[in-house]
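Most newcomers find our protein records easier to grasp once they have seen one. A record pairs a protein's sequence with a compact description of its fold. An example says more than a description, so a record of this kind follows:
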Amino acid sequence: MSNIDNKKKIQKVWCDGCYDLVHFGHANQIRQAKSMGDYLIVGVHSDEEVRKHKGPPVFNEEERYKMVRAIKWVDEVVPDAPYITALETLDKYGCSFCVHGDDITCTADGQDTYHIVKAAGRYKECKRTEGVSTTNLVGRMLLLTKTHFDHGIPINSMNPQDLEKISSDSSGKSPYTGVSHFLPSSQKIVQFSDGKDPMPGDRIVYAAGAFDLFHVGLLDFLEKVKELGDYVIVGLHTDSEVNRYKGSNYPIMNLHERVLSVLACRYVNQVIIGAPYKVTEELITQFKVDVVVHGSTLIMNDADGSDPYAYPKQIGIFQTVDSGNPLTTSDIVQRIIAHKLEYELRNQNKEKKELAVLEKIQKQKEMLNGNEVI
């Protein structure tokens, strides 16, 4: 028998989705799917399919393909994946089974998109990440059009009554799209982190910022940053600090959400949680930083009016990195605001479909329970 025959067969796993406004919830689903096999293939739906079944996507398909490729647990991306997962798709790519979260995904007419693979026993479920969804994030951005929120109040300090107003649909609340606070744990951070320290001689690059609504502009920036060294450390500013220099209702995502979103990126090795706005001698010494970088956007002064990058500039290790992509978090928010009514309708329709499916499941359970009594 040859060495090839002795080798364990590679277990290929499939998962698919829209992956719009890619966030740590998507990344966590992908991480869990990868843990069930050896090689993960992710199918991403086209703009046409997303519009047909969910409504207008925030990111176009090329942006979404690129974002998913950058998640560190993804081995391969299949563009224009069918919205209903078919056995033929799994067979074509040599995948044993499909993995999806324990939330509800429906077609435009309310059909379960995974009914075929479920019936064939080629479906596995992973735990959905509570407290975040694309629908939820869109709702947070829609809040920016409401003047009574526009007073520099960070999202995470709003009261529950204000947060409930994110959804325009008052007929009910879906447990999958309703608003809840993300509660981080040390275990989750460990799961997202590769846990590797820099090797002796590694060139260490440091980049700091808000990294809010982790998007393709930030991704292109980090890809360029990675080219400057061997080990990339990202410093994430606190919510109050981000709100100080960005104003309005920024950040859209709180610090803990931003930590996981950045850690999921294959170009990032380590994150400093709540990094100081001023890049000090102590920070550079502690983390043995060789290069400090900032994007081509304007550098806002520190609270005392000083340049936060004065020290790295003084010692000659500061560089400006142009990502070549002008997209900013503000641009993403403007996309939402410009199509406010469309996205409000998208959120309402998604929630109504999910509530209808939940009601159907509940009735089926009641019927089964009734039969057991008889």
User: Anything to note?
Assistant: The chain has two domains: 9-145+330-373, 186-321. The CA atoms of residues 67 and 115 lie 27 Å apart. The radius of gyration is 22 Å. The mean pLDDT is 83.
